[in-house]
């Protein structure tokens, strides 16, 4: 059984090696490059592909799998928004993902971001670097005094709710699929509008499906409680970045923490010689604001999460090769 693993980073290697040692019957080839038109040929002769990348898995690349007789693709992440789904379906490729590598990892960064925004950490840090240790005017509020609005209550949203509860904040949530336990607790509001109107802090945990594209836009920002803070550790496309910047400029939004952002591909997890060389004006504008925290899509980036991403994906790929099924198969409807 032969698996090729694309885009393996240094931090993933020990977890991959551990898995390989435990599965001597499997031949795993490590490929540090990402899977694209230039590297897809390397998958010839393999039974399965394991990959993670933010850039698209294009039609041409997927068509090549079929040409090479490869039917098993296992993603080391949860999101499937960079797959050409029509081509996947047409070629009958089985895809697995890792839906629950560590909800706590994402929820912990969410909490970190909420607290940093609330305590004006970026402003204090900037002042301190200039030798200014003064307090005023950057007095904070406290999380226990706030209403936190959670948009989508899947595994990650639920973990955020658990954590925020410990701080004594009031929690409200919106989701089209309501969790029975949270429903019994009366957490849900019945429209996104009610969530926006009543939240001091709004945190987004929805997937990048077309219905959620630019969920946060000029109109929905108008519905929000003045002074709201917005956290996005989910997907960049959920927020219309221009509208967010307008909201921040007008003061309607008093802070934002973005671990994901539109046009991040090619920028996040990349290095530029200087701030000026960052090839996106909106990202630069947001980085320059004292009340905005940008992190480069690192919510998932913890050792337990990365271990699960690597090893669950390899297990799923092996299951597909051996049996044609896996509990991690993605259902495309
Ligand atoms: C995902 O799992 O889809 C993520 O967003 C994390 C990814 C950057 C590895």
Which helices and strands occur, and which strands form pairs?
Blueprint: E1 2-6, H1 13-22, E2 27-31, E3 48-51, H2 59-67, E4 72-75, H3 85-90, E5 94-96, H4 103-118, H5 121-129, E6 147-151, H6 155-165, E7 170-174, H7 180-184, H8 192-198, E8 201-204, H9 218-223, E9 228-232, H10 241-250, E10 253-258, H11 281-287, E11 292-294, H12 303-323
Parallel strand pairs: 1-2, 1-3, 3-4, 4-5, 6-7, 6-8, 8-9, 9-10, 10-11
Bound molecules: 2-OXO-4-methylpentanoic acid.
The CATH first-level class of the largest domain comes to Alpha Beta
CATH superfamily of the largest domain: NAD(P)-binding Rossmann-like Domain
From the 3D structure, determine the CATH topology of the largest domain: Rossmann fold
Please estimate the helix content: 25-40%
- Bin the strand percentage: 5-15%
Counting structural domains, the number is: 2
Alpha plus pi helix count: 12
Structural class estimated from helices and strands: alpha/beta
Strand order of the largest sheet: 7-6-8-9-10-11
Q: What string gives the helices and strands in order?
A: EHEEHEHEHHEHEHHEHEHEHEH
Task: Sketch the major β-sheet.
Answer: 6 strands, parallel
Quaternary state of this entry equals: single chain
What is the residue-averaged pLDDT?
Answer: 97
Overall geometry comes to: globular
- Low-confidence sequence ranges: none
Bound molecules: 2-OXO-4-methylpentanoic acid
The CATH architecture category of the largest domain equals 3-Layer(aba) Sandwich
């Amino acid at each position: 059984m032969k698996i090729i693993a694309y885009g393996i980073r240094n931090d993933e290697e020990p977890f991959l090696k551990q898995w390989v040692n435990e599965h001597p019957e499997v031949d795993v080839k490590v490929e540090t490059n990402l899977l694209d038109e230039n590297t897809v040929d390397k998958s010839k002769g393999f039974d399965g592909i394991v990959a993670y990348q933010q850039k698209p898995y294009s039609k041409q690349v997927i068509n090549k799998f079929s040409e090479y007789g490869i039917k098993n693709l296992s993603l080391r992440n949860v999101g499937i928004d960079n797959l050409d789904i029509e081509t996947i379906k047409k070629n009958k490729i089985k895809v697995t993902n890792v839906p629950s590598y560590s909800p706590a990892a994402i929820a912990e960064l969410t909490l970190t971001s909420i607290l940093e925004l609330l305590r004006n950490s970026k402003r204090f840090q900037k002042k301190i670097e200039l030798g200014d240790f003064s307090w005023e005017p950057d007095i904070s509020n406290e999380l226990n005094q706030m209403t936190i609005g959670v948009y989508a209550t899947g595994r990650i949203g639920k973990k955020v709710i658990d954590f925020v509860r410990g701080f004594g904040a009031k929690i409200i949530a919106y989701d089209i699929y309501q969790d029975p336990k949270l429903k019994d607790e009366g957490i849900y509001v019945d429209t996104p509008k009610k969530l926006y109107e009543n939240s001091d802090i709004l945190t987004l945990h929805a997937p990048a499906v077309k219905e959620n594209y630019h969920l946060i836009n000029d109109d929905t920002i108008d519905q929000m409680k003045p002074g709201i803070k917005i956290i996005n550790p989910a997907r960049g496309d959920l927020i219309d970045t221009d509208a967010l910047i307008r909201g921040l400029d007008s003061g309607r939004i008093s802070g934002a923490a973005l671990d994901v952002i539109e046009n991040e591909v090619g920028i996040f997890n990349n290095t530029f010689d200087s701030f000026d060389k960052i090839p996106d004006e909106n990202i630069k504008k947001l980085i320059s604001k004292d009340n905005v925290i940008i992190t480069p899509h690192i919510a998932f980036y913890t050792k337990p999460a990365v271990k699960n991403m690597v090893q669950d994906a390899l297990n799923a790929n092996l299951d597909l090769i051996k049996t044609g099924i896996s509990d991690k198969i993605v259902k495309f409807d």
